[in-house]
Design a protein that fits this description.
The complex is a heterodimer of chains A (314) and B (314).
Chain A: E1 2-5, H1 11-24, E2 28-31, H2 37-45, H3 53-65, E3 71-73, E4 76-77, H4 88-91, H5 93-100, E5 106-107, E6 110-111, H6 119-129, H7 134-164, E7 169-173, H8 176-179, H9 186-194, E8 198-201, H10 207-218, H11 225-237, E9 243-249, H12 253-265, E10 271-276, H13 282-302
Parallel strand pairs in A: 1-2, 1-3, 3-5, 4-6, 7-8, 7-9, 9-10
Chain B: E1 2-10, E2 14-20, E3 26-33, H1 38-52, E4 57-65, H2 69-76, E5 80-81, H3 84-95, E6 101-105, E7 110-116, E8 119-125, H4 134-143, H5 148-156, H6 169-181, H7 186-203, E9 215-218, H8 225-235, E10 239-240, H9 248-260, E11 275-281, E12 290-296, E13 299-304
Parallel strand pairs in B: 1-4, 4-5, 6-9, 9-10
Antiparallel strand pairs in B: 1-2, 2-3, 6-7, 7-8, 11-12, 12-13
Helix pairs in contact in B: 3-9, 5-7, 7-8
The chains are: A alpha/beta (314), B alpha/beta (314).
Chain lengths: 314, 314
């Protein structure tokens, strides 16, 4: 039995949890490769035009896996707690894949705290489908969960150390599945790395801390889970960086609100907003990255008034 | 021999070259159409400049900007290859040191650059769409059977500009036809178009930006006095158009060349050398990167476009 996992969307939120869970119950997995043009092409060909670029990529990864595994793991994760909703593109994935590839064997489980479908229950169901007892699955889940948590905590710690250091630093505000995808964020992070600019990621933040920061800054809860977390990340790190880069894929619903909101609210840092789609236009991105870099470098040199928060509180 | 610095700006529509001395005085300049062949256009510009140059000067450093900056930078062995935003800002600052806002509408790009105390603080560029740029005006002028020079003078005679929707070129065009069919005069339509360009620019590129005086307007469209007048009316502040506004990008890189302190020997006979470019598709992995190879007299000078080492051409 071999389980295929598409390296897209949810994978970037749950990579350590999922891979460790399957390892703990002794099930072999295959993760699709980092996104390449071929996968993008397959994804675009099998998706409706209105889908966002990131979800088109997901479909490409599923197609890649079709003949390489016994089952493809596409859980339906609607939220991670009550009032912490994922975007509809994410929680609709199971149905999307089922309808796009009717013959595909899908390993599915539902997480929805509104209906008391907890994450642990979902993993017990997955274990059941793979012939594991409830106890085996629960133990595997709990171990995987604490491994994933400590990996994330270590990453956050490392980022906090990085931000204490000298040098030009920027903060990337983007869904993890965009930031770390080889066909979306990589060109952008590669550019900053090549130019010795340190990169911090808004998604590397403790979820509880992020929620508290978001509420403090904006006076209310942010509906979408991922956006709420990212905004918390911005609040946490914005004073330590020289500029902020927003990366979104066309046409992202939540980003269309929050990118605009951030541009209006943050007046003390240069912000670069990049929208990526399947029409590969890297020349335009290069020009924008270069001029953004010039601006943050020039600001550093001129060392103007020390940065301070400018916020419009409601 | 006195030292001189050469700056070249290779845009989508036109190619500009300028040579300055140590005190930023112009020694020679040239402005020609790119006509889809940037290398030939640069050769023509260099020939024209060579003819205008005083023999007591020698070019010690060259810089390129504009959308073909990398290609031409490689061909000429440029020391400075700079994005258009920074180049335009530096060039304009050398002429108007207290400039706060630069409006630029070129052949296919439009941008806004905000400057505070001589440092670029923020900028914006048009996104996916080229609505309201020079190429739109050119095509509409052709459609109305008008010379571009008559376009502005006719627009200035209008007392009641027709309202034209300029959010999108396709809609603007059908609106234009409609206005003509219901009986608006050509002068009113043309004036309406100029106004639409301004409104489109301010609502898209200039959205949310604080435009402060002194304002400098550049790019090919700044040659259209009717558009300038509309900008002044809408912003309620004077808008400066430098007669050499089209050379600001080239001037900017020339100034940056001077600042770089690096020196090289440059010979105008480079125009006799045969440069050939070839686009190839790498077949080593599914990304199929498009690689551009530049050949000088038959030997490979440089190549770029590959995402990884597998595509390296030399």
């Amino acid at each position: 039995m071999k389980i295929g996992i598409p390296r897209a969307l949810q994978y970037f939120f749950y990579e350590d949890l999922w891979l460790n869970f399957f390892k703990n119950i002794g099930i072999e997995t295959i993760v699709s490769p980092t996104t390449n043009k071929e996968i993008v092409k397959k994804g675009v060909a099998n998706s409706i035009d209105e889908a966002c670029f990131s979800s088109k990529i997901f479909i490409g990864h599923v197609e890649y896996l079709l003949d390489k595994c016994d089952m493809i793991f596409v859980p339906r994760i609607e939220n991670s707690a009550v009032r912490e909703e994922y975007c509809t593109r994410i929680f609709g994935l199971y149905d999307l894949v089922r309808n796009t590839f009717p013959d595909a064997k899908i390993l599915n489980a539902e997480v929805n705290y509104l209906y008391r479908k907890r994450e642990s229950n979902a993993f017990v169901k997955i274990g059941e489908a793979l012939g594991k007892t409830k106890e085996e699955s629960l133990e595997a889940y709990q171990n995987a969960s604490s491994t994933a948590e400590s990996i994330k905590a270590a990453k956050i710690l490392k980022q906090e150390e990085l931000l204490k250091g000298d040098g030009i630093k920027i903060l990337i505000f983007s869904h993890a599945y965009n930031t770390y995808d080889a066909c979306i964020g990589k060109e952008i992070t590669d550019y900053f790395n090549k130019n010795d600019i340190k990169i911090a990621y808004a998604d590397l933040v403790d979820e509880k801390e992020a929620q508290a920061l978001t509420k403090e800054a904006y006076g209310k809860r942010v509906y979408w889970k991922v956006s709420a977390q990212l905004i918390g990340g911005i609040e946490k790190y914005r004073d330590s960086v020289d500029g902020i880069v927003l990366i979104s894929t066309f046409p992202c619903g939540p980003d269309s609100i929050f990118n605009e909101l951030l541009i209006r609210m943050i007046k003390d840092k240069p912000i670069l907003s990049l929208v990526i789609d399947e029409l590969d236009a890297s020349a335009g991105i290069q020009t924008r990255l270069e001029s953004f870099t010039d601006i943050i470098m020039a600001r550093r040199l001129s060392q103007r008034t020390p940065s301070k928060h400018v916020r419009n509180r409601r | 021999m006195k030292k001189a610095y050469l700056g070249i700006d290779i845009g989508s529509i036109s190619t500009k070259g300028i040579v300055i001395d140590e005190n930023n005085n112009t020694l020679a300049d040239s402005y020609l159409w790119t006509l889809g062949n940037p290398i030939q256009a640069v050769k023509n510009v260099l020939n024209e400049i060579a003819g205008k140059m005083d023999g007591s000067y020698t070019v010690v450093n060259i810089g390129t900007t504009g959308s073909a900056r990398k290609l031409i930078g490689t061909v000429l062995g440029a020391q400075v290859v700079k994005n258009e935003i920074t180049a335009h800002a530096v060039g304009t600052l050398s002429v108007v040191p207290d400039v706060k806002t630069i409006l630029e509408i070129g052949g296919q790009d439009s941008k806004i650059i905000l400057i505070n105390q001589g440092v670029v603080m923020d900028y914006a560029m048009n996104t996916l769409c080229a609505a309201g740029t020079g190429s739109f005006l050119t095509s509409q002028a052709k459609r109305l059977d008008l010379d571009l020079d008559d376009f502005a003078s006719l627009a200035l005679t209008s007392e009641n500009p027709a309202k034209i929707a300029a959010r999108c070129t396709v809609f603007a065009e059908s609106d234009l036809v409609h206005k003509a069919q219901i009986g608006h005069s050509k002068a009113d339509i043309v004036a309406g178009l100029c106004r639409a360009i301004v409104m489109n620019y301010l609502n898209n590129v200039g959205k949310g930006k604080q435009i402060k005086s002194p304002v400098v307007f550049q790019g090919g469209v700044s040659k259209n006095s009717a558009v300038v007048k509309e900008f002044e009316k809408e912003l309620q502040m004077p808008v400066h158009v430098d007669p050499n506004g089209h050379l600001m990008g080239a001037l900017g890189v020339a100034v940056l060349c001077k600042a770089s302190k690096e020196e090289t020997s440059f010979d105008f006979s480079i125009t006799d050398i045969d440069f050939v470019t070839k686009g190839i598709e790498c077949t080593h992995c599914p990304n199929n990167c498009e690689i551009i190879c530049v050949y000088k007299n038959g030997t490979l000078l440089d190549a770029w476009g590959n995402r990884c080492e597998q595509g390296a051409q030399k």
